[in-house]
Structure formats: structure tokens, C-alpha cells
Specification:
Elements: E1 3-4, H1 5-12, H2 16-25, E2 35-36, H3 38-47, E3 52-54, E4 62-64, H4 66-86, E5 87-89, E6 93-98, H5 104-113, H6 116-121, E7 130-135, E8 138-143, H7 148-156, E9 164-170, H8 177-189, E10 192-198, H9 207-216, E11 229-232, H10 241-255, E12 258-260, E13 266-275, E14 279-288, E15 291-292, E16 296-299, E17 302-310, E18 316-317, E19 319-320, E20 325-331, E21 340-344, H11 347-363, H12 377-388, E22 391-398, H13 401-412, E23 420-428, H14 433-442, E24 444-449, H15 457-464, E25 468-471, H16 474-489
Parallel strand pairs: 6-8, 6-9, 9-10, 10-11, 22-23, 22-24, 24-25
Antiparallel strand pairs: 1-2, 3-4, 5-12, 7-8, 13-14, 13-21, 14-20, 15-19, 16-17, 16-21, 17-18, 17-20
Helix pairs in contact: 1-2, 12-16, 13-16, 14-15
Bound molecules: guanosine-5'-diphosphate (GDP).
Main location: cytoplasm
Protein name: Translation initiation factor IF-2
Subcellular location: Cytoplasm
Length: about 500
């Protein structure tokens, strides 16, 4: 009997998304409703302290052994108690989202400049994907890849690293398409939302209009009787930055962000690259525990004996407690952004675990024939029709930013009263495996405009029954989308 991802996640008490991303780490690309092989299930179960008993005869498909479960529970309880005792406040992790040109990058720069401690240290600012500042003698961590592309990617892997999202809205422009998209992403992620009304210095700045627009979107500002903390700023002149940081700290207090610093470190990869002379580097944010030089960590098929750690000023760091972003040197290979790392006993264990993951990826086994190998357009539409009612969802990838706007405009002009069109995301870049997983989870079709597929995407898409269409001409794209919408209405399907 098949072990379905969704049911298995429930049995283990984890979010399906989390399980999917864990499987990905093992090189297994399975969606919610697909089955995984027994050995894989057993391995995942063990990782979470469960022992799996597969019943081949009899009616029960699989059952989690009761005694093991209870034992695990007792262990968990003891761990939980220790955990509560060791919980301590941790800095908030903040990301900045908003429409292009509304000042995300400028705001990130202004915030960095406002950091007195860093100014005194005289380090050289490096973009490592995240930085930490000190304000009112407290720390705040910022992800400094502006825009929601990075944010979405991490979430697609089940990584929730952000606590607070600051939505930047230019006071002269007001809400724009990407502002709304970013808002949707933040709301879906369930992070705390704040609004920074930027460019207060420009002529034509209209703070009231922005607040009106916020109210229309059910995120009314505090001074309008709503709950959204709203701070007027000018990233260019540096005004309002202190207020913004004060408000972030206040929100952090409300959220009571805590973590246990006295345990083995685990966290999320923010970004990675390979640098000549230093080998693979990865910026990580520690979420639990404290990461130290000399620790052995593993992340999917990659592992590291932490040789050195640096902050965003290029300064050597010996210890990284929760919420600290650090660049780690000593990796066997570059780990994926959004992937989870954890500290293990020693280098040998790290290497073994990484090798196992690598082995699984090589063999690319783990998925059973319960998954559809060839997917017809018909079954796809039937699928969409059955599960998604009458909404055609699209995930769009384009070559350059200008194209994203063009595609968006054309699609927004397609009108149909019976089928609605939902653009799940529009991003610049190659069609990636992450897009396929997102599409599989959302029941969306992937559209590439003037772009190509990353290596290995086609089999993953086939496996997940995700349809990919690529076009080079905008009218063809629009026509095809219209056809797809019409097909969804076909009563024969
Ligand atoms: P991003 O695309 O959201 O990262 O926006 P940028 O930070 O690159 O800013 C886009 C443009 O707006 C740049 O030319 C900035 O100099 C300008 N800009 C950003 N913030 C302000 C501001 O507070 N006031 C004014 N007048 N211009 C700003």
C-alpha cells in the first residue's frame, strides 16, 4: 500500500511542505499526493524519532509502532522541558519587500548606515545575503536580497526564516502590482507585516493616498484604526529610519521571539557560491543553538567542518547564536539556498549523512510507480478542473524584468467571467525545480517566456504532472492561455 506524502506528514506531525523539502534534500521530488518508498519513509521516520512498521499483510497499510511513539514522546517531553528552560530572546529576522524602484535597496543601505557599531568597526561592507545591525543596544537581522524572489524560493522549500516583512511603498507611486504581490506572499507566509512609506521627500508624496490604499486592502494603518505599523521614511535622506528600527524592535517584543541558544545549531542556508581560493561559501542564518568554528554541519549532500565564519563586514566570528547571519567556510560543495542545515556530532557523521543524501540523489530512487510518468494534457486539465474549480493558475518565468511586466499586462487584459486567472508568481530566470514544486503544490501551469529550463527540470515536471509551456512571442502566449482557460470549461473533461 502506498505511503502518501500528505498522510505521512500528518502521522509524523509535520507540515507537508516541510516533509516535501526534507525529501528534496534527499534528492526525492514528491508532491503532496504522491507515494514514497518504504525505505525512504523509514529513514525519514527515524530522523524524527519514529519507528515505522510496515504491514504487508492485513488491512492496515502502515502503522507507527505505538511503543516507539510513546518512547519518542517521553524523550520529546524531556527535551521540550529543557528547551523551555533554555529559551532566550533572539533578534528578529526582517525582509524588505515591495515594487521595483520603490526603494528596497536604498532602504537596506540606509539601515546599514544607521548602524553606529558597524561604522566604528570600519569593516568593509560585503553583501552576503543578510546582515545584522545594532539599534538601541539590540540586534536586528535583515535579509539583504531585496524582492520576494528569494523569499518565495525559501518558502517553497518550507523554510520560514523571516519574522517580519517590511513592505516598502513609494509615497508618490502608491501601491503597484508588485506591491500587491509582495503583500500576498507575506500574508501567505504568515509573517508580521509593517509598511514603510518611502520617498517622503519627493514632490507628489501622498501619504494619505497610501494609507487609503492600505485600508482598501484590509491592512489599515494604526492611526486609521487598523493594526499595521506604518512608518514614513526617506531612504535617500535617511529620515524616519530610527523610527522604523524602533518599531521593528517593538514588533519583535510583541512577537516574543525566542530560541534555545544552548543546543546544537540548526538553521537555513541564505545563499551560497564558490569562490576561488576559499572554495564553497554559504551564508547561513542560525535558528536554534549556537554555531561555532570547528562544528560539523550537514545540509543535504553537502557538509562542512566550519573552518571560519565571517559577518557582513568581513570580520571573523567565532560563535553565532540564534538569528545571526554568518558566512561559513569549509563546505564540501555549495548547498542550496533555503535548505536546512544542522550540526552533528563530528565530521565523520556529517560526511556520512551527506554521502547518504548524495547516494539517494544519484540513484534518484524513492518514488514509486504510483506517480504518473506520462501526463496527458487531458488528465492535467481534469486535475486542474477537479481540484482548483475554475481558476487557471500560472507560474511565469521570463528572461528579463521588462518581459515580466509585458507578460503581466497581456494576461491581465484577458477577461473571462467563467474562469479566473491567477498569477501565482512572475520572476526572472530559468524554469527551475523549485518552480515545478511550487506549481505542483499550487496546481499551476508553468510558463516560460524567452527563457529555458534548468538542467533536469523536465523529468521532475513529468514526475509531478506539472505542465511547462515555453514561448518566445507574447501573442502566442496570450492565445495559448486563452485556449487553456476555454479548455477548462469543456464539460467533457
Ligand atoms: P528598489 O528597486 O526597490 O531596490 O529601489 P532602489 O533602492 O534601487 O531605488 C530606486 C530609485 O529610487 C533610486 O534612484 C533611488 O535613488 C530612489 N530612491 C530610493 N529611496 C528614495 C527616497 O527616499 N527619496 C527619493 N527621492 N528617491 C529615492
Amino acid at each position: 500500500p502506498p505511503i502518501i506524502v500528505r498522510d505521512f506528514a500528518t502521522a509524523l506531525g509535520m507540515k507537508p511542505f516541510k516533509l516535501i523539502s526534507e525529501l528534496m534534500e534527499m534528492g526525492i521530488f514528491a508532491s503532496m499526493n504522491q507515494a514514497i518508498d518504504e525505505p525512504v519513509a523509514i529513514k525519514v521516520g527515524e530522523k524524527h524519532g519514529f519507528q515505522l512498521e510496515i504491514k504487508h499483510r492485513g488491512e492496515a497499510a502502515q502503522q507507527i509502532q505505538q511503543s516507539a511513539k510513546e518512547k519518542a514522546k517521553v524523550k520529546e517531553q524531556a527535551a521540550a522541558e529543557a528547551e523551555v528552560q533554555n529559551l532566550a530572546m533572539r533578534p528578529p529576522v526582517v525582509c524588505i519587500l515591495g515594487h521595483v524602484d520603490h526603494g528596497k535597496t536604498s532602504l537596506l543601505d540606509a539601515i546599514r548606515k544607521a548602524d553606529v557599531a558597524a561604522g566604528e568597526a570600519g569593516g568593509i561592507t560585503q553583501h552576503i545575503g543578510a546582515y545584522q545591525i545594532e539599534h538601541s543596544e539590540r540586534k536586528i537581522t535583515f535579509l539583504d536580497t531585496p524582492g520576494h524572489a528569494a523569499f518565495t524560493k525559501m518558502r517553497a522549500r518550507g523554510a520560514d526564516v523571516t519574522d517580519i516583512a517590511v513592505l516598502v511603498v513609494a509615497a508618490d507611486d502608491g501601491f503597484m502590482p508588485q506591491t500587491d504581490e509582495a503583500l500576498k506572499h507575506a500574508q501567505n507566509a504568515g509573517v508580521t507585516l509593517m509598511v514603510a512609506i518611502n520617498k517622503m521627500d519627493v514632490k507628489g508624496a501622498n501619504i494619505e493616498r497610501v494609507k487609503q490604499q492600505m485600508q482598501e486592502r484590509n491592512i489599515a494603518p494604526e492611526d486609521w484604526g487598523g493594526e499595521t505599523v506604518t512608518v514614513p521614511v526617506s531612504a535617500l535622506k535617511g529620515t524616519g529610519i530610527t523610527d522604523l528600527l524602533d518599531m521593528i524592535l517593538l514588533q519583535a517584543d510583541v512577537l516574543e521571539l525566542k530560541a534555545n541558544a544552548k543546543t546544537e545549531a540548526s538553521g537555513i542556508i541564505i545563499e551560497s557560491q564558490i569562490e576561488v581560493g576559499r572554495g564553497p561559501l554559504a551564508t547561513v542564518i542560525v535558528q536554534r543553538g549556537t554555531l561555532r568554528v570547528g562544528d560539523s554541519i550537514v545540509c543535504g549532500p553537502n557538509w562542512a567542518k566550519v573552518r571560519a565564519m565571517f559577518d557582513d563586514q568581513g570580520k571573523n566570528i567565532k560563535e553565532a547564536p540564534p538569528s545571526t547571519p554568518v558566512r561559513v567556510i569549509g563546505w564540501s560543495g555549495a548547498p542550496d539556498s533555503g535548505a536546512e542545515f544542522k550540526s552533528v556530532k563530528n565530521a565523520r557523521e556529517a560526511e556520512n549523512l551527506a554521502e547518504e543524501a548524495e547516494h539517494l540523489i544519484r540513484k534518484n530512487t524513492g518514488t514509486t510507480d504510483a506517480a504518473p510518468k506520462e501526463v496527458s494534457v487531458e488528465s492535467l486539465f481534469a486535475n486542474i478542473a477537479a481540484t482548483q474549480a475554475k481558476t487557471l493558475k500560472l507560474i511565469i518565468k521570463t528572461d528579463v524584468f521588462g518581459s515580466t511586466e509585458a507578460v503581466r499586462n497581456v494576461l491581465e487584459n484577458i477577461k473571462s467571467s467563467k474562469v479566473s486567472l491567477e498569477i501565482v508568481s512572475v520572476e526572472v530566470g530559468l524554469v527551475s525545480k523549485t518552480d515545478i514544486l511550487l506549481a505542483s503544490a499550487a496546481g499551476a501551469v508553468v510558463i516560460g517566456f524567452n527563457t529555458k529550463l534548468e538542467n533536469g527540470v523536465t523529468p521532475v515536471a513529468k514526475h509531478h504532472g506539472v505542465r511547462i509551456e515555453t514561448y518566445g512571442i507574447i501573442y502566442e502566449l496570450a492565445d495559448k492561455v486563452r485556449d487553456m482557460m476555454a479548455d477548462m470549461l469543456d464539460p467533457d473533461l
